[in-house]
């Protein structure tokens, strides 16, 4: 072998590297562009399931071609163009089939009535398509879990495996949930459109519920060995910011973004060195992210400037802002927080909101006042297995010096939570109440 001869395996290594680089490029582009591609296709074919299938076809084409041809200068446009061609082919095949069936029955000529699709594909701004996709994926005909999974799949570009890992669910369960959701939308004839009038407010509430559900699952994981799953929080924040850009005149959208920005600002302070939860009263506020807080305040200001009466997310954002404004836990304006929770209870009455109001009352006016409200919630069926009810009650009892009762409440709370770090914290609080 001469000095100029390639070493054995060189070409094979280069080919393998090209494939690896192409796969990375495809994955990165897909995560960024998936929602736009699916949204544009859904407007064409009026079927979210088919739109995702066509987008996946384009993805497969990229995986086959990019290792040989190289990554295009505009990979998102390349994927969209390929997906649209597949959609046009599908539509034309369907039209030819329908026309032939009609010819058999009526003897019509073979004139091709198929329109020039390419001339009409881009008549609507992509922002309109994305908003349609958001409202369709979050349609209330679906369960909250199905809406969350479908939203992460279509708008977040997450794989089924990633969604399953995020929600600590079997991959097969999540895959089935997504398939059923798309089938339900098709069978229900849900139109690919942005609702208007009174229906828009109801549907928007469904959209915001899904985004906040995703955020909350990341902010305080309902199960597993981690207190938080930051990737879910970040995905919800990204979806919220996108939604705020698509619907800038909706105060509740800005309210939700403000709430998530401010809550996310506490991420670094919410866990200790071993991943254990740290309560907001005990957090090092120097670790709170001031940039996220400023972004949250700006979003809250945008919501308030729109002039509508405050909705539930604007009120919750205002509560979060009270915490963010306090330089120390002692400076927290608990009286204002309690008043905001009073407004929230009137607007959206629920036992969970009332429990949060009890916490604020206990901090503002003493634990006995909070305990009075908590005890009135004891018979609520919705809170029967809700671990935060005995947790809050235990905290109030401990502050009143009723340590034996507090210990039992903390132990009950620990038995109800499925999150291991939270259970550990509750058991340590129970132990602290035991006689020395």
From TrEMBL:
Residues 135-185 form the RNA polymerase sigma factor 70 region 4 type domain. GO terms for biological process: DNA-templated transcription initiation; response to stress. Residues 8-22 have a biased composition (Basic and acidic residues). Gene3D superfamilies: 1.10.1740.10, Winged helix-like DNA-binding domain superfamily/Winged helix DNA-binding domain. Residues 203-303 form the DUF6596 domain. GO terms for molecular function: DNA binding; sigma factor activity. Residues 1-22 are annotated as: Disordered. Residues 38-96 form the RNA polymerase sigma-70 region domain. InterPro entries: DUF6596, RNA_pol_sigma-70_dom, RNA_pol_sigma70_ECF_CS, RNA_pol_sigma70_r2, RNA_pol_sigma70_r4_t2, RNA_pol_sigma_r2, RNA_pol_sigma_r3/r4-like, WH-like_DNA-bd_sf. Pfam families: DUF6596, Sigma70_r2, Sigma70_r4_2. The keyword DNA-binding applies. This is RNA polymerase sigma factor. It comes from Planomonospora sphaerica.
